[in-house]
C-alpha cells in the first residue's frame, strides 16, 4: 500500500531507532492527509494504465482468495492486483538520495549538481551574448547589453512551471533538427562543389586533420557530458507526460537521437574547419555565402561580399542566431531543476509543503538563475566555463544513478521481497552493472580533473620559469 511504502522509505532515512520512529510517524500523518486528495487522481491513473510517483507500473501483488465462513469455496485463479501507487506527486533526485542513500549522498549530489547546473546556466548566457554579438543582423548592444536582454527573457520564464512551456519546448525540438541539417548540409554542399569552391568568408582552406587526436580527450569528455546530460531533470520532465509507461522508450530514443546528431556535427564540422573552428562552432557560419555574391575590396583594404543570395543569408542567420534562441528555452529547464533541488535540500522532509508556496518557488529559482547571469559578465569564454564544471556531469550521469539503483533495489528486497521488478526492468537492472557504471563515472571524474589540473599547473610552472629567466 502507499502508506507501507512511505513508512519503509522514511525508516531508511537514518539508522538510530529514535529517529526512525519519529520519521515514520511523520510520514504516516502526511500520507493520511494527502490520501484524500490523491484518491481520485490515483483511480484515474490506474484505470488508464498509467502511473504516478516513484513506483510506476510496479509488479503486481498477489492477493489470497477469500475464505468462506461455512464450507470452503472452490479454488479460483488468483488475479493480480492493480499497480501500486505512491501518490500524485513527483520525487526529486535529492529526495531520493536522502531516502535511499542517506544524508552524505545528498550533500555530494547537491555539490555536483549545483556546480554543474550553475556552469550550464553560465554557458547558456555566454552562448546567447556571443552569438548575437557576432551577428551582423543584431548590433549596437555589445556583450553586456545582450546579457541584460537575455536575463530579461529567461528569468520570467524560469518562474513558470514546465506544463506552461510544453508548446514552446516541442516546437523548438523541430528547430533543433533543422539546425543539424543546415550545418551538415551547407558543409556537404561546399565539399561537393569542388576543392576550389569556398562557401565561407574568410575562405577556409580545405584541411586534412587527423580523425582522432587522443591528447584532446580530456577536453572532449566534459563537453560531451554537457551535451547529453539531462538526468537531473528527469523528475520534472516526466511529470507532464500523460503515459509514464512510455518514459523508458522516450528517454532512450532521446539519447540515441542526440548522440547521433552530436557525432554527425562533430565529425563533419571538425573535419571541415579543423583548427579554424570557433569555440561556439555556429559562429563559423557568420560569413557563409553558399558560393554566391561578389567579393569587393574597400578603400581601407577590408573586404566584404555583396549580392549574396537570400537563401544563403537566411541559412547563415539561422545557424548563427538559433543557438541564442535555443538556450533561451534550455535555460529555464535547468534553472527550474536547480531551484527545485535547492528547495528540497533546504526544506528536507517538508519539501512537499514548501513547494506549494509560490514565494518559496520564486525565491529558490532566483537563487538558481541570477548568479550565472552575473558570472557570464565576468567570464565569456565557453571553453573556460565547461572545462571544470563539466567534470561533475560524469558523477550526475553515471555514479549517482547507479547508487540509487543499488540502494533502492536493496530496500525493496528488504521490505517487499515479492516486488523486485518494475515496468522499467531490463537485462541491465542488476547490481553488477550498476557497480560498473558507478566506477566508470568515478574514473572519468578522476581522469579529466587530473588532466585539467596538470595542464593548469604546467602552464603556471612554465610562467614562473620564464619570469625567473
From TrEMBL:
The chain crosses the membrane at residues 106-125, 137-160, 172-191, 211-229, 250-273, 315-343, 388-408, 433-456. It comes from the Eukaryota. Keywords: Membrane, Transmembrane, Transmembrane helix. Signal peptide: none annotated. Residues 31-44 have a biased composition (Basic and acidic residues). Residues 16-51 are annotated as: Disordered. Coiled coil: none annotated. Residues 16-26 have a biased composition (Low complexity). This is Amino acid transporter transmembrane domain-containing protein. It comes from Corethron hystrix.
